[in-house]
Design goal:
166 residues, alpha/beta, Rossmann fold, 2 domains, two-stranded antiparallel sheet, binds flavin mononucleotide
Length: 166
């Protein structure tokens, strides 16, 4: 079976995970900004995107491409500050993905990186405001001071699934 990785990334951590998955599996890897790559050419897809402002960054790409990919098995990996759990599930639901996608895809939650000095001023200020309002002290500190949870070994479940599909 022929597969491919299509990712979105704002600050590079999702791109890094996508490239690690490509290195370990030999799958081709495309940024969704590359309009020449056609996801309908593949037998299965690995889609990767960060959560930015409580939504998946690739939600519009998924909705636009849904008519041509709805019959293709999908592994979705998300990259976020928050770990797997209710908050993350709510943000995925908030991204308004096609309903039959949510029930058929496999989801793997990975944790990313946020370096305050690399952010745009707009993002930095928005995250400082979010930190002031956030009742969770750990998440609030992460929004203020950043974090680095990048972990190459966390892609292992994805590699195992891809190898089975290949
Ligand atoms: C502007 C901004 C908004 C974010 N919003 C969220 C969020 O709502 N929930 C969350 O868990 N993480 C959030 N994060 C953390 C990102 O998901 C994390 O930094 C991720 O690694 C970014 O991926 P990228 O480097 O591929 O862009 C946010 C980060 C930024 C910069």
């Amino acid at each position: 079976m022929k597969g491919a990785i299509f990712f979105a990334s704002k600050y590079g951590s999702t791109a890094e995970y996508a490239n690690w998955i490509a290195e370990s599996t030999g799958l081709p890897v495309f940024n969704i900004k590359n309009k020449k790559a056609d996801p309908s050419e593949y037998d299965f897809l690995v889609l990767g995107a960060p959560i930015i402002y409580y939504k998946l960054l690739n939600r519009k790409w998924i909705r636009t491409n849904w008519p041509i990919i709805e019959d293709i098995p999908i592994i979705l990996f998300t990259v976020s500050g928050a770990p797997a759990g209710d908050k993350l599930d709510a943000w995925i639901a908030n991204s308004k993905l096609p309903e039959n996608m949510l029930s058929n895809m496999i989801h793997v939650a990975l944790r990313g990186r946020q370096i305050p000095k690399e952010l745009t001023w707009f993002d930095r200020i928005m995250l400082l405001i979010a930190a002031m309002k956030n009742p969770d002290p750990v998440a609030s500190k992460e929004e203020r001071e950043g974090f680095d949870y990048m972990d190459k070994s966390s892609i292992e479940p994805i590699i195992a699934m891809v190898k089975k599909m290949q």
